[in-house]
Structure of Tail fiber assembly protein:
Amino acid sequence: MIITPDIHVTAAGESFSINRNKFYIDHFGTKFISQQNETDQLIDCNFNDELVCEEGIWRVKNELDVYQEQHAKVKKARQAEYTARVRPYLEEAEIKKHMGDQAEYNRLMDLAVKEREKIQSEHPWPISPEVA
């Protein structure tokens, strides 16, 4: 256990954070003002701060974490939309090409490209905190 001027230890051996900007974090990421287990980690944070665990160490979520979550969400949404809305054009275009209908192949490929562009405009990438 880390003892600092902000930590009060009772006669029973319980540890409490006097400062409400220090919390004990259990392995699930739950915040406590008192130490519940020997493995609880004491960190500086506000009660409403979201936490991230990296290699077993808790820290406050930062702008880069939020950006990465948003980026992953957009990527997943785009992939789902590509599968549902673009792939059918691509598959039909390949069939038409195989059948020798080059004009229909070109038309369907153009539709696939336009649909892809729509999806990208509907699901724009988030702005990186490094750029903003």
Remarks:
- The CA atoms of residues 9 and 15 lie 4 Å apart.
